[in-house]
């Protein structure tokens, strides 16, 4: 199956693509295996490498926010993913969002044209011998998943991930909806988001319809123990937590003013541009498991979306991840085999940028192993180092996926009292720690 001199990277998603690039840039031949289009997943729509499925947003790009700190680190470390994302940007206020098609096209072209990377369109059913990075993501094919379960000697953990729907921009009623970013942050004159305002009566009717709407049933034993990832809850699950849970969650109106009334709405639904042409917009925070007919009915109750046409409906799928604290070192090596690395969402790192970061580190460390160099264990005062430390040191009994956040970093000494100043202090410490680390290690 493989060239004996090449590292095998299993999975052409975010982490696998980044790992392959980092290896090739260090002179290591790579066989990058991607099963699509021969075998598609429930979430993907194309055969492109690094296809984004849940959202087109990579989260905040502000320098004093945890996701922004992680993005700075990845740019500093030479991430292919971040370079392509910066070329495919669409307006999103203080966040970094991309045109999915343009972004995946850029990544696919860069990898396919690299002289040391061979993209193999083939499903891998067994764990290869020799140096390997497993980055098959949360939708690992059943045959390989069974192999991994046998290797690891413990059953998989899992959670449910959901995707938000996307509508055609021309079908949004701009007589009701308005353009603005919260607190006018990061926006041009017209605003980066489209906002659909709701009065209290409209909000309560919408919530009631959402709670009564028919959902797609989970399968078999999954009905008895469904586990949802808190950062990506289906909107109907949030609504079930209380009558105002959405108004304090994805429909919070703070920082926005309806130009028709001059006042803050009771609630608001934000839509974010999903492509460079501005023809598609996704409903922010509206991941859902409603049946498609119910999505049309219920989401058209939102003022401004009464005639919306859907380019893509929301959906929910099971995501699988290993018990990383039991099986992985902070270098992302399997504890029982030095030349087997894991990267991406299968490790329990959550969020696009975290997946990229683990792919980058796994690629660098695989190259370092083969070239006789010290493997990198990034300082936990960096955001990527903190993520890798968390997933390899958390309690195995109740391990759950984790996104970039300041709470997983070591506490600050003499921490500023004001929250915004503390965030800035965390960010500054992370940048200094990475620069000091790189001064002692060859990138």
Summarize, please.
31% of the residues lie in helices and 16% in strands. It has helices spanning 14-25, 66-76, 80-87, 100-112, 142-152, 200-212, 235-239, 292-299, 324-327, 352-370, 383-393, 419-440; strands at residues 7-10, 30-33, 57-60, 89-90, 95-98, 117-120, 132-134, 157-163, 166-168, 178-179, 193-198, 267-273, 280-283, 310-312, 315-321, 333-334, 337-342.
Largest beta-sheet characterization: 6 strands, mixed
> Any idea what the shape is?
globular
Which structural class should the secondary elements be placed in? alpha+beta
Number of H- or I-type helical stretches: 12
- How are helices and strands ordered from N to C? EHEEHHEEHEEHEEEEHHEEHEEHEEHHH
Estimate what percentage of residues fall within beta strands: 15-25%
- The total count of strands amounts to 17
Q: For the residues shown, what is the average pLDDT?
A: 89
- The end-to-end span amounts to 31 Å
Query: Share of helix among residues?
Result: 25-40%
Query: How are strands sequenced across the largest beta sheet?
Result: 6-2-1-7-17-16
Regions with little confidence, pLDDT below 50 for 5+ residues: 220-225
Radius of gyration: 22 Å
Topology diagram in text:
Elements: E1 7-10, H1 14-25, E2 30-33, E3 57-60, H2 66-76, H3 80-87, E4 89-90, E5 95-98, H4 100-112, E6 117-120, E7 132-134, H5 142-152, E8 157-163, E9 166-168, E10 178-179, E11 193-198, H6 200-212, H7 235-239, E12 267-273, E13 280-283, H8 292-299, E14 310-312, E15 315-321, H9 324-327, E16 333-334, E17 337-342, H10 352-370, H11 383-393, H12 419-440
């Amino acid at each position: 199956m493989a060239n004996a001199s090449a590292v095998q990277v299993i999975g052409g998603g975010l982490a696998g693509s980044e790992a392959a690039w980092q290896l090739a840039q260090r002179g290591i031949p790579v066989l990058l295996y991607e099963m699509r289009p021969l075998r598609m997943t429930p979430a993907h729509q194309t055969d492109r490498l690094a296809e984004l499925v849940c959202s087109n947003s990579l989260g905040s790009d502000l320098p004093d926010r945890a996701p922004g700190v992680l993005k700075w680190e990845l740019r500093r470390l030479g991430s292919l993913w971040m370079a392509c994302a910066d070329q495919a940007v669409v307006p999103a206020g203080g966040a970094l969002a991309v045109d999915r098609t343009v972004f995946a096209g850029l990544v696919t072209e860069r990898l396919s044209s690299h002289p040391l990377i061979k993209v193999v369109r083939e499903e891998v059913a067994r764990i290869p011998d020799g140096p390997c990075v497993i980055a098959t993501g949360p939708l690992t094919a059943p045959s390989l998943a069974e192999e991994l379960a046998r290797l690891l000697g413990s059953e998989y953990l899992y959670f449910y991930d959901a995707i938000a729907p996307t509508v055609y921009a021309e079908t949004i009623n701009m007589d009701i909806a308005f353009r603005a970013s919260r607190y006018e942050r990061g926006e041009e004159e017209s605003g980066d988001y489209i906002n659909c305002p709701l009065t209290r009566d409209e909000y309560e009717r919408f919530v009631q319809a959402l709670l009564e709407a028919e959902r797609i049933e989970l399968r078999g034993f999954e009905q008895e123990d469904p586990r949802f990832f808190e950062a990506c809850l289906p909107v109907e699950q949030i609504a079930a937590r209380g009558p105002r849970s959405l108004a304090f969650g994805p429909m919070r109106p703070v920082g926005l003013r309806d130009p028709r009334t001059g006042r803050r709405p009771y609630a608001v639904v934000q839509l974010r541009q999903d492509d460079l042409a501005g023809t598609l917009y996704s409903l922010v925070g509206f991941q859902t498991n409603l049946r498609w007919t119910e999505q049309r009915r219920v989401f058209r109750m939102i003022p401004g979306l009464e005639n919306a046409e859907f380019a893509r409906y929301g959906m929910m799928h099971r995501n699988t991840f290993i018990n990383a604290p039991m099986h992985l070192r902070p270098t992302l090596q399997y504890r029982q085999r030095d030349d087997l690395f894991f990267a991406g969402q299968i490790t329990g790192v959550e969020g696009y940028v975290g997946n990229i970061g683990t792919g980058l580190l796994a690629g660098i460390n695989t190259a370092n192993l083969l070239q006789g160099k010290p493997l990198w264990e990034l300082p936990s005062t960096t955001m990527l180092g903190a993520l890798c430390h968390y997933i390899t040191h958390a309690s195995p009994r109740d391990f759950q996926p984790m996104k970039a956040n300041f709470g997983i970093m070591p506490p600050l000494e003499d921490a500023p009292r004001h929250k915004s100043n503390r965030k800035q202090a965390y960010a500054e410490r992370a940048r200094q720690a990475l620069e000091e680390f790189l001064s002692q290690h060859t990138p």
